[in-house]
TrEMBL record:
Transmembrane segments: 22-43, 55-88, 100-123, 143-164, 171-195, 201-224, 249-273, 293-315, 327-351, 371-388, 395-419, 425-451
Presence of keyword Transmembrane: yes
Keyword list, A-Z: Cell membrane, Membrane, Transmembrane, Transmembrane helix, Transport
Taxonomic placement: Bacteria, Pseudomonadati, Pseudomonadota, Betaproteobacteria, Burkholderiales
Cellular location(s): Cell inner membrane
A GO MF label: xenobiotic transmembrane transporter activity
Cleavable signal peptide: none
Name assigned to this protein: MATE family efflux transporter
Main subcellular location of this protein, as a coarse class: membrane
Gene source species: Rhodoferax saidenbachensis
GO cellular component: plasma membrane
Pfam families: MatE (PF01554)
Topology in the lipid bilayer: Multi-pass membrane protein
């Protein structure tokens, strides 16, 4: 294990640069990345909506599973990868940082295989339990089988992006992700509706377009890491498997995966509860909740540089700076998510009518946005503190917070149905769950969950040194 006295300029920026401007500078390309990735799903949804409400409902059934894979590969395991690399670079363990590249890709391959087998074999059972039936269920199966057959492409793309982010380089994943949209926008309708010699594939065409997008992006990221411009390289020199390096990724990634599962189970439960009110309710909730999923990439745009900054500071022993960065990022994420939620609550039709014109679908989706939207800030708060906890390598309380959110959403929704409640009460349970999630995470971290001493934000001093 070798060290070096010299610090890479990106590592030095994370340790010494002004916090606010550094987070904004690094976060801007990541916000662009994540908005672009969210746009991938929105573009597909817009085109699939032209196939009818059954196709839209089928996509809504599959969406929690697709987002589970996206969030686990980019956020949970991706955060574990970025955190491990950032801590190794912060501690100047450069050989370990290089070796973590190979270990990260092995983990990605194993998780991709697990997703492929689980959804190809158990997809119909899952979507049926979520309320799918008839044409909507068949549409879900078409989309699901295509997407999860190519799960390895999603995992490799997000694992490589996480490796690069762990070095403090947010620009390359941003350029690759946004650049891929140039090809996806025309490719998606081409494969869905067909043109000339290209046959119409329907909803399966949307899935194939998505896989082509990730395949091309993966090849570009591999080419970058094989070049001399990357701080870390893909090569044979560090291919020996070492359990401590797997553990360094997994101790953050697996716990983060549990939190990610809880988030998506929460959405899946709400989808299933909405199914009690018919396919249009599923389509309405599924379309409206895409805005909630859009918050994930937006907050991730702040969370990704926060993982790198907190991880690098912890690795270098700069605990006070890690805490300052955390609370500054938390305030920024809360305001961003709250602004979006309030706008959605005031103008729900502006979002929902982008995807379908069915009045019943729009009515169901509008109720969700009007009830839950004003509480999006707490979701943003809890989520960004989860990312910061990844950087610190301390994820127990984010897991507890997400578990509490799941419990409130599930129990509240089920009780609402048992007591003859309507769809609005199901959504009210979702709103309460978001508040619980944000408050539990903030209280735990402020109370010393990371370093065993109170860590409440000290204002205005924290901002004065930002």
């Amino acid at each position: 294990m070798s060290t070096t006295a010299a610090l890479d300029p990106r590592t030095r920026l994370l340790l010494e640069g002004p916090i606010v401007s550094t987070l904004l500078r690094l976060g801007a390309p990541m916000v662009l990345v994540m908005v672009a990735q969210a746009a991938v799903g929105l573009i597909e949804t817009w085109f699939v909506g032209k196939l009818g409400t059954d196709a839209l409902a089928g996509m809504a059934l599959v969406f929690p599973a697709v987002m589970l894979m996206q969030m686990m590969s980019a956020g949970a395991m991706g955060g574990g990868i970025a955190s491990a690399i950032a801590r190794a670079l912060g501690a100047r363990r450069l050989d370990d940082a290089d070796a973590l590249v190979f270990h990260a890709l092995v983990i990605g391959l194993l998780f991709a295989a697990a997703f492929t087998l689980s959804l190809l074999l158990g997809g119909r059972w899952l979507y049926t339990r979520m309320g799918g039936s008839g044409a909507a269920l068949e549409a879900a199966m078409q989309y699901s089988n295509w997407v999860f057959a190519g799960a390895v492409l999603v995992w490799m793309f997000n694992s490589l992006s996480a490796i690069i982010r762990g070095t403090g380089n947010m620009a390359v994943p941003a350029v690759v992700t946004v650049g891929g949209l140039v090809f996806l926008v025309p490719l998606s309708p081409l494969l869905i509706f067909g043109w000339g010699p290209v046959p119409a594939m329907g909803i399966a065409g949307g899935a194939l377009a998505l896989l082509v997008y990730y395949a091309v992006g993966t090849l570009v990221l591999i080419a970058y890491m094989r070049s001399g411009r990357s701080l870390l390289r893909i090569g044979w020199a560090h291919c020996k498997m070492r359990w401590p390096l797997f553990k360094d990724i997994l101790r953050v990634g697996v716990i983060g995966a549990v939190s990610t599962v809880a988030t998506n189970v929460c959405i899946a439960i709400a989808t299933a509860l909405s199914g009690a009110f018919g396919p249009t309710a599923i389509a309405g909730y599924g379309t409206a909740s895409r805005l909630e999923y859009l918050l994930v990439p937006l907050v991730f745009g702040l969370g990704a540089p926060l993982v790198a900054m907190v991880g690098t500071c912890v690795g270098a022993g700069q605990r006070e700076r890690a805490m300052r960065a955390t609370w500054i990022g938390a305030g920024m994420a809360f305001l961003l998510a709250e602004a979006i939620g309030i706008a959605a609550a005031l103008f729900p039709a502006a979002w929902l009518s982008l995807f379908d014109s069915d009045p019943a679908m729009i009515a169901a989706g509008a109720r969700y946005l009007q009830i839950v939207g004003p509480f999006y800030g707490f979701f943003g708060l809890g989520l960004v503190l989860y990312f910061a906890s990844q950087g610190a390598g301390k994820l127990l309380w984010p897991i507890i917070g997400n578990g509490a959110r799941l419990l409130v959403a599930a129990v509240g929704g089920l009780l609402a149905l048992q007591w003859g409640g309507d769809l609005g009460i199901v959504f009210a349970a979702q709103a309460a769950a978001m508040v619980v999630y944000g408050v539990v995470n903030a209280y735990a971290i402020a109370g010393g969950a990371w370093f065993g001493r109170p860590g409440w934000p000290r204002l205005p001093g924290a901002w004065a040194r930002a």
